[in-house]
Amino acid sequence: MENHKILVVYFSRPDENYNVGTVETGNTEILAKKLAESLNADIFAIVPEKPYPTDYQGCIAVATDERDQDARPAYIGEIDNWSEYDTIFLGYPIWWGDLPMIVYTFIENHDFTGKTVFPFNTHEGSGNAGTYDTLKEKLNGATVSGDGFNISGIKARTEDGVAKIIDWASQQKW
Ligand SMILES: Cc1cc2nc3c(=O)[nH]c(=O)nc-3n(C[C@H](O)[C@H](O)[C@H](O)COP(=O)(O)O)c2cc1C
């Protein structure tokens, strides 16, 4: 792990969400930040140009439209030194049994050739929902670890949840 230049990339939404009420920091974001700290990695948040509605039902409606239209919502900012990273930890919530559409925007905008990718995600029952396989298909040219990490959003917010992802990351060999 010491010889790698690692970037943690994540999408996460704060505000009102299923099971957790209204939160200032999204479930995946909590894990992403702790993970970056523990790996001594850089971090990049995929922040939507157009923020999602703060209420859960409103967000559900927008996410449904995005999925139905196979949309590619825009995000803010860019990573200047993308080519310098050989390892990407990619974090996201499950939305409708899939990656949020904005994560597709991100992965389609970047060349992952030669990189090692470790997916991690939060959910409320769907596990990884087949997204690790999707990433393997989409990111051909990269090595996507099948041994990703997933946890429920509510558990991601606990000390135990944070300890679990740090433990998982520390066990990866590449
Ligand atoms: C639009 C939307 C769709 C969701 N779809 C699913 C789903 O299909 N399966 C699931 O287990 N959880 C689903 N969830 C729950 C989220 O995956 C879960 O709350 C996650 O921890 C949110 O992470 P975040 O706080 O980092 O955004 C959905 C949540 C939202 C807002």
Annotation keywords:
174 residues, alpha/beta, Rossmann fold, 6-stranded parallel sheet, two-stranded antiparallel sheet, 6 helices, binds flavin mononucleotide
Shape, per Cα inertia axes: globular
Q: Please, what is the CATH homologous superfamily?
A: Flavodoxin domain
Which fold does the CATH topology refer to? Rossmann fold
CATH level 1 name: Alpha Beta
Distance between the termini: 7 Å
This entry's quaternary arrangement is single chain
Order of helices and strands: EEEHEEHEEHEHEEHH
**Largest β-sheet summary:** 6 strands, parallel
Q: Which class best fits the helix and strand makeup?
A: alpha/beta
Question: Mean of residue pLDDT?
Answer: 97
Bound small molecules, by name, code or SMILES, are: flavin mononucleotide
State the CATH architecture: 3-Layer(aba) Sandwich
Number of helices: 6
Tell me the Rg in angstroms: 15 Å
Structural features, described:
- By secondary structure, this protein is α/β, with parallel strands linked by helices.
- It has a single domain (6-169), classed as Flavodoxin domain (Rossmann fold, 3-Layer(aba) Sandwich).
- It is 34% helix and 23% strand.
- It has 6 helices and 10 strands, in the order E-E-E-H-E-E-H-E-E-H-E-H-E-E-H-H.
- Strands 1, 4, 7, 8, 9 and 10 form a 6-stranded parallel beta sheet that branches.
- Helix 4 links the parallel strand 8 and strand 9.
- The radius of gyration is 15 Å and the shape is globular.
- The termini are close together.
- Bound molecules: flavin mononucleotide.
- Flavin mononucleotide is lined by residues 12-13, 17-18, 26-29, 59-60, 63, 93-97, 122-126, 153.
